[in-house]
């Protein structure tokens, strides 16, 4: 069906179309034999000790290298040019014989990364959300899809008391109703996935009440969305005095979840709030435990942290995340630079898991502030701590000395707060020029994501 016909259809027809599509997705994801077979295995691996999963990782690397070097054109040529044989890369420590793979290399010819035994036309072609620049094309086969959803179920739903069959609200970037629509519903009901899909584009002052009413009426099991969307909704609920919403859990995805967002979402939705970290390429997955730590799934990929020269960073320091993925063997990615930076900790976690902990995930380079001393700062939520009465804020860096902070003011905002905010910002990053720009709303990216920092340097 043509898009414009869909948009002009009455809500009931939209729901039918969404539900038919949902049933197809359900079949591909959950009636997939790999999903069914692997789910119990993934659950079992959850309690593995470090020595056990490290052995497993080495085996996955051998399998991956065998496929890549023999059947994937890009890697076959790479091994030839480096005069390497597949047997030369047998474990985690051997991986450094291979170069770090940049996104631009894949973008220029994604098909060269596909196992030549796969039929391109039967593969599922998905795109990364690409907050900046053009998105990356990822090819996945039926096995990858089955495994990806089995990991989603095992590590991002079951531990939080919900499952693939629970009812849920998704606040997402898909335009499920026309952009110019000014009357509810701003959502569709997808019975195939038991999902209420709510447009994040229409979530504004004017329409928030409709969203909250619908959620109250539906009594869904859980809610899923970008950290900023969950937070916006919670903030509207607070401002409108709606405090009877209740979910089993709110699952935050695709953006770092700030402490102030976590607190308000938990309070207004009367539930636990958990953070997750993953990517469309399926080479890294992390999920929050009962101690609010993000544990990395060691059976999804092997993770290294490097500096800008590709050298491993000392323990406890921030580095660029480099992934070797075990899930997508149709388009293997080895030592792939995903574009985010983080710290990794092997500290003992009270929850009992021996999986490594992903700490302070920072955004892509254009989501970071760069200071004169070379420091790169991503998470700036400490700046906004205190009684600032801010609904949303975005920091824009034009050069080393000049910053603008866009502020959507809260109810108690005044000129004194403006002064305190500038002071707090300079306390945190040093003496710079700061201009405060009061705005009604902050624009999202094309994918509907909120960016806390924009670097124009
Ligand atoms: Zn833990």
Describe the structure.
Helix content is 31%, strand content 23%. The protein contains 11 helices and 20 strands. The model has no long low-confidence stretch (mean pLDDT 90). It has 2 domains: 32-166 and 221-362, Rossmann fold, CATH 3.40.50.12780; 369-455, 2-Layer Sandwich (GMP Synthetase, Chain A, domain 3). It has helices at 3-8, 11-30, 33-45, 50-71, 73-81, 103-108, 142-156, 208-218, 227-239, 259-268, 415-429, and strands spanning 124-127, 137-140, 168-172, 187-190, 195-199, 222-226, 249-253, 272-278, 285-288, 294-296, 301-306, 319-325, 336-345, 357-362, 369-370, 376-377, 390-397, 402-409, 433-438, 453-455. With 457 residues, it is of the alpha/beta class. It has a 12-stranded mixed beta sheet, sandwiched between helices. It has a 4-stranded mixed beta sheet with strand order 19-18-17-20, with helices on one face. The chain has a two-stranded antiparallel ribbon with strand order 1-2. Helix 4 (50-71) packs across helix 5 and helix 9 (227-239) crosses helix 10. It binds zinc ion. The site of zinc ion has 7 residues, from loops.
Which key features would you list for this structure?
Rossmann fold, 23% strand, GMP Synthetase, Chain A, domain 3, 12-stranded mixed beta sheet, 4-stranded mixed beta sheet, 457 residues, alpha/beta, globular, binds zinc ion
């Amino acid at each position: 069906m043509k898009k414009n016909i869909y948009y002009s259809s009455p809500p009931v027809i939209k729901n039918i179309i969404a539900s038919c599509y949902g049933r197809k997705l359900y079949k591909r994801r959950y009636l997939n034999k790999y999903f069914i077979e692997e789910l119990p295995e993934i659950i079992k691996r959850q309690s593995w000790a470090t020595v056990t999963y490290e052995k497993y990782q080495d085996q996955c690397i051998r399998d991956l290298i065998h496929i890549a070097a023999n059947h994937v054109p890009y890697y076959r040529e790479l091994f030839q040019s480096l005069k390497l044989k597949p047997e030369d890369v047998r474990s985690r420590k051997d991986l450094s014989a291979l170069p770090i793979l940049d996104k631009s290399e894949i973008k220029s010819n994604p098909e060269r990364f596909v196992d030549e035994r796969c039929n391109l036309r039967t593969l599922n072609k998905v795109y990364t959300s690409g907050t900046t620049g053009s998105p990356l094309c990822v090819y996945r086969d039926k096995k990858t899809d089955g495994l990806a959803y089995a990991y989603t179920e095992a590590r991002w739903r079951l531990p939080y008391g919900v499952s693939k069959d629970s009812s849920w609200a998704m606040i997402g970037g898909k335009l499920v109703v026309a952009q110019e629509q000014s009357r509810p519903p701003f959502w569709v009901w997808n019975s195939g996935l038991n999902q209420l899909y709510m447009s994040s584009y229409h979530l504004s002052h004017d329409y928030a009440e409709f969203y909250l009413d619908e959620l109250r009426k539906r009594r869904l099991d859980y809610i899923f969305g970008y950290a900023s969307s969950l937070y916006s909704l919670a903030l509207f609920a607070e401002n409108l005095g709606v405090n009877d919403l209740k979910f089993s859990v709110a699952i935050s995805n695709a953006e770092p979840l700030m402490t102030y967002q976590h607190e308000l979402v938990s309070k207004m939705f009367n539930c636990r709030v958990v953070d997750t970290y993953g990517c469309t390429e399926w080479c890294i997955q992390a999920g929050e435990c009962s101690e609010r730590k993000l544990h990395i799934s060691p059976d999804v990929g092997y993770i290294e942290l490097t500096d800008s020269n590709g050298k491993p960073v000392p323990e406890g320091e921030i580095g660029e995340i480099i992934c070797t993925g075990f899930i997508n063997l149709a388009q293997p990615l080895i030592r792939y630079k995903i574009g985010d930076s983080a710290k990794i900790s092997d500290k003992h976690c009270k929850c009992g898991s021996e999986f490594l902990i992903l700490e302070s995930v920072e955004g892509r380079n254009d989501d970071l502030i760069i200071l004169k001393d070379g420091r790169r700062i991503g998470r700036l939520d400490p700046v906004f701590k205190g009684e600032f009465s801010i609904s949303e804020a975005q920091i824009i860096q034009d050069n080393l000395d000049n910053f603008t902070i866009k502020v959507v003011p809260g109810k108690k905002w005044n000129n004194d707060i403006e002064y305190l905010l500038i002071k707090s910002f300079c306390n945190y990053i040093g003496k710079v020029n700061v201009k405060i720009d009061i705005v009604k709303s902050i624009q999202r990216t094309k994918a509907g994501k909120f960016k806390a920092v924009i670097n124009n340097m």
